[in-house]
Design brief:
Helix content is about 40%, strand content about 20%. With about 400 residues, it is an alpha/beta fold. It binds pyridoxal-5'-phosphate.
Length: about 400
């Protein structure tokens, strides 16, 4: 592809600043093409992508099988109202239920919408099953569940909530890995506990498997739904289809989005048991949700994940990557506080607030990464990455640490 003129690139930045609401701190790079684990900017420069759209592009950019499926469906039937049946939606729901051990799916267009559906199921189920006062939901400090009013209320991080007070009533927050604190909060008013098995935006923090099993037992004992937000850690990223499968627990309601259609907008809320049959006509819906075009993209993505053994690659290559970063930590104990994660969802906690300057160093070396805070670097590459590409990221981090010693 011909490089976009530099003046054209600057013009895009200027127009963006003028007419697009300033909700994102954008890097001054204009990506114009993607293929596999690589992106090209408007100057024709190639970048290794260890962000993948923030854990979205599981099968890599513009995978030909997925691109062809989208193009074919676009020429056949893009959209049909949810007032009519859609064979691709039913097929996709069946596949997702099989992969997640759930019974029914509700499709939507994003992660926050999938969580909205989960929250509505929990409230309706709680009131019907346990009485009108049973509507409270407990989430965890450091969580991220989205930016709609209900999901920002579920997101127990003051920085996301402060400008939008007052929030939705009926939410309580507690600390991860503290079962006694959770036990003290659960009451006859609690309809659901909602958590990310590995907190993503909170800094790649896996919850302890033992704690998750205790949460499951507590929910069973108190007739409380367990909602697992797998939007960032699901769809194969941790080395199992779900992060919770890697950690040995099962939810009643599971939400997925991000990686489910390799970048095509889609979210899904899956449920089992009574939760799966709680919503009835008129309770919930969305115009575009689960349209044939999005379903074709998601079905093709699942095919690629299976045919190319991407979950196995996430487990094996991710395991190598984590170990290599942990080795780097032993070489730089005064700079790296912790390396954590699972599969290809990895975070490096730094001792100093230098994540953002290291990110700029990575960009100068043509590697796209992300910082979830001043002290945490996040690596969530496409699930196709090789050990060699991981090696490049580790050696670049080493060079950057050396250069700023
Ligand atoms: C765990 C988790 N839940 C929910 C969301 C919200 O998803 P979306 O941005 O698609 O609404 C995100 C997005 O980062 C997420 O990481």
């Amino acid at each position: 592809m011909a490089a976009v003129e530099q003046s054209g690139t600057e013009a895009v930045f200027a127009l963006d600043r003028e007419v697009v609401m300033g909700t994102y701190l954008r890097q001054p790079i204009l990506f114009v093409r993607g293929e596999g684990a690589y992106l090209w900017d408007s100057n024709g420069e190639k970048y290794l992508d260890f962000l993948a759209g923030i854990a979205v592009v599981q099968a890599g950019h513009c995978h030909p099988h997925i691109a062809n499926a989208i193009a074919k469906q676009a020429h056949t039937l893009m959209h049909i109202s949810n007032l009519f049946h859609n064979p691709l939606q039913a097929e996709l729901a069946q596949k997702l239920c099989r992969l997640t051990e759930m019974q029914k799916a509700f499709f939507c267009n994003s992660g926050c919408e999938a969580n909205e559906c989960a929250l509505k199921i929990a409230r309706k189920w709680g009131k019907a099953k346990r009485g009108a006062d049973c509507f409270e939901i407990i989430t965890f400090h450091g969580s991220f569940h989205g930016r709609t009013m209900a999901t920002v209320t579920a997101t127990a991080q003051p920085k996301y909530q402060a400008p939008f007070q007052p929030l939705i009533p009926g939410f309580h927050y507690t600390s991860p890995n503290d079962i006694e604190a959770l036990r003290a909060l659960v009451s006859s008013r609690t309809c659901a506990v909602m958590l990310e098995p590995i907190q993503g935006e909170g800094g790649i923090r896996p919850m302890q498997p033992n704690f998750l099993q205790q949460v499951r037992a507590l929910c069973d004992a108190t007739q409380t739904l367990l909602i697992l937000d797998e939007i960032q850690c699901g769809t194969g990223r941790t080395g199992s289809f779900l992060g919770s499968q890697s950690m040995g627990i099962k939810g009643d309601v599971i939400t997925l989005a991000k990686g489910i259609a390799d970048g095509f907008p889609m979210g899904v809320c899956l449920a089992q048991g009574e939760a799966a049959n709680t919503l009835v006509p008129g309770d919930h819906g969305s115009t575009f949700a689960g349209q044939p075009l999005a379903c074709a993209a998601a079905l093709a993505t699942l095919e690629v994940i299976e045919q190319e053994n991407l979950i196995q690659n996430a487990r094996e290559t991710g395991g190598w990557f984590l170990a290599a970063l942990q080795k780097l930590q032993t070489e730089y104990p005064d700079r790296i506080a912790e390396v954590r994660g699972m599969g290809l969802m990895v975070g490096v906690e730094l001792k100093n607030p230098e994540a953002k300057s290291l990110l700029q160093g990575f960009l100068r070396n043509h590697i796209v990464v992300n910082a979830t805070s001043d002290t945490v670097l996040r690596f969530v590459p496409p699930l196709i990455v090789t050990q060699q590409e991981c090696e490049k990221v580790v050696s670049t981090l080493k060079t950057l640490l050396q250069a700023t010693a």
